[in-house]
Amino acid sequence: MSGYSEKNQIFIPPAELEKQVKFTSLVHTMLASRYPDSPKAFVHTYGCQGNVSDSEKIKGQLKKMGYSFVDSPEDADLVLFNTCAVREHAEDRVFGNVGALKPIKEKKKDMLIVLCGCMMQQKHIADRIKRSYPYVNLVFGTFAIHRLPEMLYTVLSRGKRVFEIEENAGTIAEGLPTERDRGAKAWLPIMYGCNNFCSYCIVPYVRGRERSRLPEDILAEARELVASGAKDITLLGQNVNSYGKNPDCGVNFASLIRQINDIEGDFVIRFMTSHPKDCTYELLDAMAECKKVARHLHLPVQSGNNRVLAEMNRKYTREQYLDLIAYAKKRMPDLSLTSDIIVGFPGETYEEFLDTVSLIKEVGYTSLFTFIYSKREGTKAASMPDPVSYKEKSKWFKELCDAQEEIAARRTASMVGKTYRVLVEPNDREGWLTGRTSGNISIDFEGDAALIGQFAEIEVTEAKTWILYGKKK
C-alpha cells in the first residue's frame, strides 16, 4: 500500500489490512456453512455523499465475505444502517427505523443488525443503543470501517454484541474493496476529517482531523473510474479545498484538479464541500482553466452577518466571501453558485438574519440548502443562549426561501431558448429523462432510456420556478 508513514500514522499499516483479509476469509467460510445460498445484506445510507462513499467500501467488504444485496430489510440476513449526525432529524429517523427492525428480528433470530457511521461515533448515542436496543449486534464508528471483517467475525463466532467507537485523530485505509453503482456518476474521496471546529458542527468530533490521500492513489482511482465508464466524478472531503496539508502529500487542491483534468477521457469533475476560508484565487483560476471541471461551485456561507459568522467560528467575513464570489464570476461568467444557510443560529437577531437575505440577493445563487439551526450535543453552540423560538425561526426560514424562490425563477426563465450539454440520468416519470448541466442544474425531457449515462445537447423550452423542461437537439 503506497504512502504509509510510520512517522505520522496517517495510513493504516499494510499488516493490519492483511489481517482483515484473513478475517474476510474466515467469515466467508463461516457463512458458507450456514447458508445454502449466499447470505443477503441490506445496506441503507443516511446523510452526505461521504457516507455514500463509505457505504461503497462497506458493501465491497461484505461482498468479499460472501454477501449479496437485497432492497428490503425483510429479505436480509444482515441489515446495516450507515448513519448521519449532522442534524437532529437524521438521528430521529435512524432511531425510528432501528425500532422498526425489532419485529423483523423476532421472526428472524439469526438476522444481524449493524449500525455505523457518524452518529455511532458519539458515545452518548452508542450508550443509548446498548441500553435501549438489545437486538442490535454490532455498532462501530467512522474510524473502524476497515475492521468490519474482524468485528463481524467476533459477532458470528462468539454470539456477542460488539461496540467499537474508539476515538482517534483519524486514519486512511487504502485498497479496501469497493462495491460501486457502475453508473455514469462516481464518488472519489480525496481527504477525510475537518480541522475547522465551526461552533455548530459535530463533524470534527465524529470524523477526526484533516488527512489527505496521496495524489498518486487518487489519480490511480480516477483513471480506474474513467476506464470503467464514469462520466461525472465528484471529489469528496469534509473540506476539499484544504487538501494536501499532509507532510508527504506534495500538492494542493488546485494542483490536484489540474492533474485529474489531464486524464484522458470525456468526463466532468465536480467537488464538495468547500470552505470559504480555504477557497483561493488559485483554485478559482484552476476551475476556470480546466475544461473538465464543472461550472458549479458549492461554497457554504451559512450567514451574511459578520457577528454571527464570528460566533460560528467561520474565520471569514461577509466582505471576504463576496470578494471570492466576485472573482469567481469574473473568471467564470457562466458559473452556477450554491450554498448552505443556517437560520436562527443561537443569539441571531432578525436584523442579522436580514443580512443573510441581502447576501443571497447580491450573490444570486442557483439554489440553497437551508436549515433551521439544529443543536448538536458536544459543540460550542449547544451551550449558547438561544432565546428565539422555533416558531419565529420558521417564519425567518420561510422569508429566506421565498427570496430564493424569486431568484431561482429569474434564473430558470433566463435559460429558456438556450442549449446545454447535459449528462443524462433516469427520471421517475415514464418516458422522461433528466439531464444535469455542468452547473448542476436539472432539465427534464422526453427521450429513450438508452441515452442514460451519455452526454446530450438539450434545448430548454419551458421554465418553472424549480423545474426546467427541454428537448433533445
Q: What do you see in this structure?
A:
The structure is a single chain. With 473 residues, the chain is α/β, with parallel strands linked by helices. It folds into 3 domains: 14-164, Rossmann fold; 185-415, Alpha-Beta Horseshoe (pyruvate-formate lyase- activating enzyme), CATH 3.80.30.20; 419-472, Beta Barrel (OB fold (Dihydrolipoamide Acetyltransferase, E2P)). Helix content is 37%, strand content 20%. It contains 14 helices and 19 strands. The chain has helices spanning 14-34, 49-64, 88-100, 102-107, 123-132, 148-158, 203-207, 215-227, 253-261, 281-289, 306-311, 318-331, 350-363, 390-415; strands spanning 40-45, 68-69, 78-83, 112-117, 138-140, 162-164, 185-189, 191-192, 211-212, 232-236, 268-272, 296-298, 336-343, 367-372, 419-426, 432-437, 442-446, 455-463, 468-472. The protein has a 6-stranded parallel beta sheet, with helices on both faces. A hairpin with a 4-residue loop joins strand 18 (455-463) and strand 19. Helix 9 packs parallel to helix 10, helix 10 (281-289) packs parallel to helix 12 (318-331) and helix 13 (350-363) runs parallel beside helix 14. The longest helix has 26 residues, at 390-415. The protein is globular, with a radius of gyration of 23 Å. 41% of the residues are buried.
